[in-house]
């Protein structure tokens, strides 16, 4: 499967650990989070074992991209939520607890759901220009 260490998600994928499966196809599995922030909190994972989003193949990323909006609609319809967050963390310092790519769909139901302490800063024009050049070069080199 991969050189990545096995995680609890691999055991869920293999059926070794029970889960409340919401959706499954050949590339993606979605299931309810066992420690939900709100009712309907759903995890969406690729079947490809990669720790971080930037490591995913284009096929696995596309498969998630195709199903994620449908799953968001299903979560909203099932819970009655009118707002939700989609959260995806990469790396332990970014609060990733399970080192397998996963997206959280977290309905906002009154006070229940995701709370964010957002601390914006400013973007200097010269820094923005340097970042754009570096990112464009990285995109050209990784195409």
Describe the fold and architecture:
There is one protein chain. With 143 residues, this protein is an alpha+beta fold. The chain is built from 3 helices and 5 strands; from the N terminus they run αβββαββα. Strands 1-2-3-5-4 form a 5-stranded antiparallel beta sheet, with helices on one face. It is globular and about 50 Å long. The model has no long low-confidence stretch (mean pLDDT 94).
Tell me the fraction of residues in β-strands, as a range: 15-25%
**Spatial separation of the terminal alpha carbons:** 24 Å
Q: Briefly note the CATH topology name.
A: HIT family, subunit A
**What is the CATH architecture assignment?**
2-Layer Sandwich
List low-pLDDT spans: none
Number of domains: 1
Assign the structural class, choosing from mainly alpha, mainly beta, alpha/beta, alpha+beta, or little secondary structure.
Answer: alpha+beta
- The order of strands across the largest sheet is 1-2-3-5-4
Task: Count every helix, treating DSSP H or I runs of 4 or more residues as helices.
Answer: 3
Provide the succession of SSEs.
Answer: HEEEHEEH
Shape: globular
What do the pLDDT scores average to? 94
User: For the report, how would you describe the main beta sheet?
Assistant: 5 strands, antiparallel
What is the CATH homology-level superfamily?
HIT-like
In helices, the fraction of residues equals 25-40%
Radius of gyration: 17 Å
Number of distinct beta strands: 5
CATH class category: Alpha Beta
């Amino acid at each position: 499967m991969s050189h990545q260490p096995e995680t609890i998600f691999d055991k869920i994928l293999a059926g070794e650990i029970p889960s409340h499966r919401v959706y499954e196809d050949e590339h993606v599995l979605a299931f309810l989070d066992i420690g939900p922030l709100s009712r309907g909190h759903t995890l969406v994972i690729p079947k490809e074992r990669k720790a971080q989003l930037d490591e995913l193949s284009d096929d696995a990323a596309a498969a998630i991209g195709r199903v994620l909006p449908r799953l968001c609609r299903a979560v909203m319809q099932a819970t009655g939520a009118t707002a939700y967050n989609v959260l995806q963390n990469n790396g332990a310092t970014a609060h990733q607890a399970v080192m397998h790519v996963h997206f959280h769909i977290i309905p906002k139901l009154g006070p229940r759901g995701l709370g964010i302490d957002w601390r914006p800063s400013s973007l200097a024009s010269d820094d923005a220009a340097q970042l754009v050049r570096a990112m464009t070069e990285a995109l050209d080199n990784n195409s």
